[in-house]
Amino acid sequence: MVPNVRQAREALGVRLRELRKAAGLNGKQLAQAVGWVATKVSKIELGRQTPSEDDIRAWAATCHAAGEVPSLIAQLNSLELAYAAWQRQLRSGTRDQQKKIQDIEAKTDLIRAFEPATVPGLFQTREYARHILGQAIAVHQVPDDLEDGIQARMDRQQILYRPGHRFHVILTETALRNLMCPPEVLMGQIERLIASATLPNVALGVIPWTSRLPKTPVHGFWLYGERLVTVETFSAELSLIQPEEISLYGKIFDLMHKTAVYGKGARTIMTGVLDDLADRFFPEPPATPGDDEK
């Protein structure tokens, strides 16, 4: 389960309490040393108040733990970025959210993505994106800028053709079969994926639904180099920047990579899904007796 903001604040407070105790100080002594009211120390340690970067530096200096400052500040920044409710993220519509993602992608050499349920936005067709973004607008009841959001998502895809960027994407076969849209739209989307997999800077892996998964795919995630992981839940988008978190998601990605098939194997799965969709939704009409004699 992804920790919420309260739990993340409490975790930071625990680390600061440990530094204080290791220095042999009680809360009153620490507060006096840095010029705070005594209650501020207890509020920070119990997760009821978020410290500032200056607070952390003063705390660490007083506890003779200056070496802990970079890690503590990274944890603070992770707390501040960790949870952004979708309604707040999308309050000005879907277009601005797409622009934000585009800025992150432009600064990243290697983007790794794992998606267990949908096709990633960078590889979506216009019609597939229409249904995905339309769902977000309807569920979260945010401003309806669907056409602008779709265009912004299409604009993001230009990075696939710019030098200096590499993409490693892993999908489950389930993501190829989920009917988030009409079957003909999904078939067009799979054809786009097959074409995208031929790009020299794109590695596209598919995990067959007959494979035993190394980790339960509770959600998708995106790794931007070694500096940021984004995770989407039903209610929010999380931005994770702690080195331990990035390392964990990198490990999970590697596990999924070992389970996925690439190249010809991936194309075989994708064309197989296309055939299944065609047989199910667009079957050939039965032959009329005598047609073979005409």
From TrEMBL:
Residues covered by the HTH cro/C1-type domain: 16-56
InterPro entries to which the protein is assigned, alphabetical: Cro/C1-type_HTH, DUF5753, Lambda_DNA-bd_dom_sf
SMART domains referenced in this protein's UniProt entry, alphabetically: HTH_XRE (SM00530)
Pfam families xrefs: DUF5753, HTH_31
Highest taxon listed in the record's lineage: Bacteria
Protein's name according to its UniProt entry: Helix-turn-helix domain-containing protein
Species of origin: Sphaerisporangium dianthi
